[in-house]
Amino acid sequence: MSGALLAYQSGLLLRSQRWLAPVVLYAAFVGVGVQSGQPVLDSLGYAAAFLLPVGSWLVRICVSNEPPAARSCTAAATGPWRAHLASLVTGFLATAVIGTVTTGVVALISDAASTDHRVKLAVLPAVGAGFLAMLVCALVGAAVGAVTVRPVVRATGPGVAAMLLCALLALVAPGSPARAAVTALITGSQDGVIRLPLLPLVGAVALAAVCGAAACRLSGRR
């Protein structure tokens, strides 16, 4: 996968303006759920959790952005799996950028303290934990997006329904890296202890790699 492919997919995403809907919806959720002066880890956990479905949506947009004729030309020039991988990576990177900006804003307006505001927390480690949780949710969101859009699921209706269901399960199912990362922030806020979600990050990387590789392999066959 080359930088030119990523630049091409990024340009398609920006020009399409289809990213506006998930970004505005995410901003609305964060604006309602995160208020100034709230505990920083709680707020970062809330922002990370809602980033997961946004990441799935952005991946879906990137995969379906190209017209069929343009998609065929790109696949012929670079290989079907490289073209598909570029769209998946572009969706993930867009999600990560949104999550990084949100993490910084949330950290600035939140109180660096535990849930009961009795224990003060170090700002930089708290932001680091929130950033890692954001990456976990972005990776899991990309994995969900990869397996609920073409070539895995070709029909739009079933694909959207599967995406929403899988995103919900990824947030609540036991063993999910996203749930583990968000839970680490919430329990850390309650205990006044910052816990870096390193194991969930490893799990999220593995999940995204497996789902992405399966989707790219299938794109080459179809």
Layout: helices, strands, pairs:
Layout: H1 3-16, H2 20-33, H3 40-64, H4 68-78, H5 80-109, H6 123-147, H7 156-172, H8 177-191, H9 198-221
> How many β strands by DSSP?
0
What amount of the residues lies in strands?
under 5%
Runs with pLDDT <50, length 5+? none
Bin the helical content. over 70%
Label the structural class: mainly alpha
Rounded to the nearest angstrom, the distance between the terminal CA atoms is 19 Å
What is the gist of this entry?
With 222 residues, the chain is mostly helical. The protein has helices at residues 3-16, 20-33, 40-64, 68-78, 80-109, 123-147, 156-172, 177-191, 198-221.
What does this structure look like?
- With 222 residues, this protein is mainly α.
- Helix content is 79%, strand content 0%.
- The chain has nine helices and no strands.
- It has helices at residues 3-16, 20-33, 40-64, 68-78, 80-109, 123-147, 156-172, 177-191, 198-221.
- α1 (3-16) packs across α5 (80-109), α3 runs antiparallel to α5 and α3 packs antiparallel against α7 (156-172).
- It is elongated, with a radius of gyration of 18 Å.
- The two termini are 19 Å apart.
